[in-house]
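pls design
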C-alpha cells in the first residue's frame, strides 16, 4: 500500500505543479484571452483539479490507514489534505464571489487589469504549502519503501 500511496502523492504533486504553477499564470498571456474568458477557464480547471484532488486524497488516506508509514509521511499527507480542505471550503467560495463580481461588472476601472484579491493570494500560498507537504510525504513514503 505504501507504493500506491507514494505513486498517488507524486501524481497529485505533478497535477498541482502543472495546473497551479504553469497553466494558471500562462492562461492570461494567451492571445485573445479576456478577463471574463480567463476567469471562466480558471473556474472550470480548478473545480476539476480540486475534484480529482479529493479522489486522490481519499485513496492516499485509505492507503496510509491500511499500511501506516512513518510519522513524517503521515504528517505530510495530513497537511496536504488539510490544505486542500481549506482551499475548497474556505478560499474557493471567496474566489467565486470575487470572480462573480468581476464578471458582473464586465469592465474594470484599471483599464482591463483586475487586481488580485486576498483570497487569490491565500489560495496561491496554500498551493505552495500543499506542494511542500506532498513533496515531504512522497519522499518519506519512498524512503519507507526502500527501508522495507
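designed seq:
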Amino acid at each position: 500500500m505504501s507504493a500506491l500511496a507514494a505513486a498517488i502523492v507524486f501524481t497529485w504533486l505533478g497535477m498541482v505543479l502543472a495546473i497551479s504553477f504553469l497553466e494558471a499564470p500562462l492562461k492570461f498571456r494567451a492571445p485573445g484571452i479576456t478577463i471574463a474568458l480567463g476567469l471562466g477557464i480558471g473556474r472550470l480547471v480548478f473545480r476539476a483539479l480540486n475534484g480529482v484532488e479529493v479522489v486522490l486524497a481519499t485513496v492516499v488516506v485509505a492507503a496510509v490507514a491500511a499500511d501506516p508509514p512513518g510519522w513524517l509521511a503521515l504528517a505530510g499527507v495530513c497537511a496536504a489534505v488539510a490544505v486542500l480542505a481549506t482551499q475548497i471550503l474556505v478560499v474557493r467560495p471567496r474566489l467565486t464571489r470575487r470572480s462573480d463580481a468581476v464578471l458582473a461588472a464586465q469592465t474594470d476601472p484599471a483599464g482591463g487589469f483586475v487586481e488580485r484579491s486576498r483570497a487569490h493570494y491565500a489560495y496561491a500560498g496554500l498551493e505552495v504549502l500543499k506542494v511542500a507537504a506532498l513533496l515531504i510525504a512522497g519522499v518519506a513514503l519512498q524512503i519507507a519503501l526502500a527501508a522495507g
